[in-house]
Every structure is written in structure tokens, then in C-alpha cells.
């Protein structure tokens, strides 16, 4: 496979090591990866100059969604789709890993959906991370068949981040008492992730020695202000706003007892895999991909339609506090099977379906 050249577009590594891990392991398998972070206008020329066999798309909104201008977004969408068509005609194979059903910022959702539907039809292959995600994109993108959909698991983050700090040291760094039951909400903060539902449930939790750490970058100023107010009103909440540096991920993960993911929407969640990679018990709704990565042995799952489900499961966390470490180790073992070497081999198999050398 030494002749196989693949462009990753867009190349987005600032807040997620996903592409770096995948590209490194594909390189070891003989694939030449071309990181591509050009604008929509130069996508076609950049891909042709790179002389790649495959264009592997990731987050589509990079190419045509502008925050405020819907008309310009529509024009960029036409330009983007036109270039994908031309690339197909010149025998460049198009693969798309569907990370999300819609963009996180909820920008121009009509255009977003139109772009996703068009690309889903123009690609040679689609990669998703779970059977639930496959079923979801078939329904949402109105796909008639799933022969070109491939399930490749999301790789784990074991050894991706440093993991040397002890719980005692991590809590000292964050000024959290050793005796506290520490809940962690971690990562980019968007409304669909349900963080305000979590702060509401915490207020109703009848347990004093608990600390909720919210660490991550809010999606906008309103969310930042809301969370700052929640922390000011409730001494049990510690809000650390901003993008967490890679070297500090271990601090938050090792300081906590359980990671809480009260998401309202789940297609794929690297945050779940991250928590499992650090050997943490998890709290999450029983929906979507969650049922394929977590189980009742290592997590506290609740029914998303139950208004009190999150509060009820937090009460269970308190009752089973002594078992959290054992549950986390179970999750670590589960995550261990999704190593990046395996993920890269599965991805290469997808590529090989559409190429002949």
C-alpha cells in the first residue's frame, strides 16, 4: 500500500487528537497521509496537486458553513459540492467519517442537512463508529441502502495523554478535598450536552460531600455566563472555563470519581472513550452509541425520557461510591480493545474496497 495517498480534510487537531492518532497508525501501514486544511475555494486544486487516491472527509461544516451569512454559506456549499463531483469524475475516491449528524454550533441547520445529504450520496464510502450511528444516518440522510456504510470503532486515548498524576495530587492542584465525591463534566460545552441539566440535578442531590467539576470551553458567552453564575450560586460546583491543555487532561480525569455525560444527542462521543481510557466510571443516558460502548458493569445508565433519570442515577452513584474504582477498571479493559492500530487497519480495509493496485 506504499502508493496509497489519502488527504484528510479538514485537518483539525487543535481540540481533538483523533486525526493525529489515526494518521500515525495509517502511516505505519504504508499509507501516505496528506493533512489538508485549505479553504473551500482551493480544495480541488489542493487535492489534485497532492495527487491523492482518496479524499477522506471529516467535519463538513468547515467547508461551507459561515456563522452569520446564510447566502455566502449556500454559495460555498454549491462550490464544495461541485468540487466533490469533479474529484469523483477524475477518479479520486471520496470517504466521509460521519462524526456528527449536525454541526455543534447549530449554524444554518437547513444548509447543514442539505450538504450532509448530498455528500452522503456522492461519497464512495461512509464510516461511522457504531451500529446506532449507522441506523441514524440511514434515517436522517434518507439513504436507501447501507452497503457503503462501514462501522469502525472510535479509537481509545490510552497513552495519548499523560497519566501519571495521583488522585491526591490532582485534587490538591484543583483545591478539592480528598474526601469529596467528585463528578466531572469535561470537554467543549454545547447546550446539547446537557450541562445545565446536570447542575439542576446536583442542586436536588441530597448529599453534601460532593463536588462537580465542569472543565471545558463554552460554545458562546451566554453559556459561559450561565455556568459562571451556577458556580457562584452553588459551592459544590467548580467551573474552569477554557480549552484544557493536553498536559492537564490527566489532572481532571484523575481528580474525579466518575465522569458524567448527560448528553441529549449522541452519534459519537470521544468524551466517553476518553473517560474509559482513564479508567473512570461513567454516567450517561441509555441511548444511541452509548449502548455499544458502555454497559451496566462500568456505568450508570438512565432512560433519557425520564425527567428525574439523571437525579436518580446520581443518587445511585452516591450509594455505590465504594464500587466506582472497580467500575472504572472494567471500562478501561473495554476501551483497551479499541486501540488505534486496530482502528487504522479497519480504516485501511475501507480504503481497499474502492481501490485496485
UniProtKB/TrEMBL annotation:
<dbReference type="Pfam" id="PF00534">
    <property type="entry name" value="Glycos_transf_1"/>
</dbReference>
<dbReference type="GO" id="GO:0009103">
    <property type="term" value="P:lipopolysaccharide biosynthetic process"/>
</dbReference>
<feature type="domain" description="Glycosyl transferase family 1">
    <location>
        <begin position="169"/>
        <end position="330"/>
    </location>
</feature>
<keyword id="KW-0808">Transferase</keyword>
<protein>
    <submittedName>
        <fullName>Glycosyltransferase</fullName>
    </submittedName>
</protein>
<dbReference type="InterPro" id="IPR001296">
    <property type="entry name" value="Glyco_trans_1"/>
</dbReference>
<dbReference type="GO" id="GO:0016757">
    <property type="term" value="F:glycosyltransferase activity"/>
</dbReference>
